[in-house]
Design a protein that fits this description.
Blueprint: H1 5-15, E1 20-25, E2 32-38, H2 47-57, E3 71-77
Parallel strand pairs: 2-3
Antiparallel strand pairs: 1-2
Helix pairs in contact: 1-2
Length: 79
């Protein structure tokens, strides 16, 4: 099952309220996304931990073969 970009963005902003999030549908199928996320919460945190914060915000939507979200490329940074 595919996820809409608006839904992914809302989940990220719920977890990181100050975040600026841009969603890009890489394949036009609502199943392969790229998220560009800028948040003060990422300041001083390495990229792996930044990505873990985003995955946590998705509350298991990418987990396993039955996950709603198939692919999400991340670009994260502090302002």
């Amino acid at each position: 099952m595919a996820m809409r970009g608006e839904d992914i963005k809302a989940m990220i902003i719920e977890a990181l309220p100050d975040a600026e999030v841009e969603m890009i549908d890489l394949a036009g199928d609502n199943n392969h996304w790229k998220a560009i996320i800028v948040s003060k919460s990422f300041a001083g945190i390495n990229r792996v931990k930044q990505h873990q914060m985003v995955y946590a915000a998705l509350k298991g939507k990418m987990d396993g073969a039955d996950g709603e979200l198939h692919a999400l490329a991340l670009e994260t940074r502090a302002p």
